[in-house]
Each structure stands twice: as structure tokens, then as C-alpha cells.
Amino acid sequence: MREPIRPREIIEGLKAPEDGALVAFDGFVRNNFKGGKTLYLEYEAYEPMAYAKMREIGAEIRAKFSVRRVAIVHRLGRLEIGETSVWIAVSAAHRGAAFDACRYAIDTLKRAVPIWKKEYFAGGAVWAEGEVPSQEAISGPSESSS
Predict the structure, then answer these.
(1) CA 58, 20, 25, 14 torsion: positive or negative?
(2) pLDDT (0 to 100) of residue 123
(3) How many structural domains are present in the chain?
């Protein structure tokens, strides 16, 4: 997704009459990284795999926790300070399951989904630690691998 995330629109689709809790995580661009002043971020992804992994995480959450609805959205492209980069929400009958599932979603996304962040500063740019995309991820899988 390259356009701004609109949480209010997503929330209305998540609330169900049988639920009593909705927990959301809003990850947004901060103005600093390791002591340097961040100007903006750029996110890149191997999109087909990223979408598949996010759907997989949603299915895992519904199987592991007593939740009904899950939304996982991540922006790509250039993001300015204060803009939401990742937004996750979980709707459930009870708050405990919603909190646990939401935490599981962001932790799993950060570990398993092929999305990479590049931080831009006045003096240059750097990939966030552990987030340099592989050549395969940038160019896609080779034709010979089946």
C-alpha cells in the first residue's frame, strides 16, 4: 500500500456486535535513529511474498487466539515524520486475546515479512539494521527455480 493508512475506516469494518475489545498498534515514523536526525523513510518489499506472509499471519492469529477479525497494513514508498508505516488491529470478545494477538502480529510481521526500511539523514542514508533486502527480494525469484 502506497497511500496513507486510514485507521478509522478499517476499525469500522473490524467491530462486531459479539466483540467487546479492539486493540490497535500504530507504528509511525519518528524523527531520529541512533542519535541521528531522520529526515524521512523509504520502505521496500518483495510484494507478492509480503502480502502472502501477512495473510498467513492473520490466519495464524485467528487459529491461535480467540479473535474474530484482524487487519494488518504496511505502507511502502516514502514516508514523512509522523506518518503511519504499519497499522495492526484485532477485534475479539475479550481484551486479553486482542492484546496478545496484536502483539503477536507486530512481532511476527517484523521477523517474517519481507519489508525493508531505509532511513534518510542530512548526510546520507542507511538501511535499518537487519533490514537490507536480498537481491532476490529486489528482483523477484529467478525463472529457473520452480
Answers:
(1) positive
(2) 77
(3) 1
Residue 72 forms part of a structural domain? yes
Contact 14, 73 (CB under 8 A): no
Residue 82 lies in a domain: yes
Instruction: With CA atoms as reference, report the closest residue to 57 among 128, 117, 9, 115.
Output: 115
CB burial of 14-34 (b: ≥16 within 10 Å; e: otherwise) equals beeeebebbbbbebebeeebe
Query: For residue 65, with 0-12 CB atoms within 10 Å meaning exposed, 13-18 middle and 19 or more buried, which class applies?
Result: buried
Indicate whether 132 pLDDT > 60: no
CB 1 within 8 A of CB 80: no
At 79, which CATH number? 3.90.1170.40
The β-bridge partners of 70 are 90
Average pLDDT, stretch 68-93? 97
Please name the residue that has the C-alpha cell 507486530: 106
16-52 pLDDT, tens digit per residue, is 999 999 999 999 999 998 888 999 999 999 999 999 9
DSSP 83: -
In a domain, 109, yes or no: yes
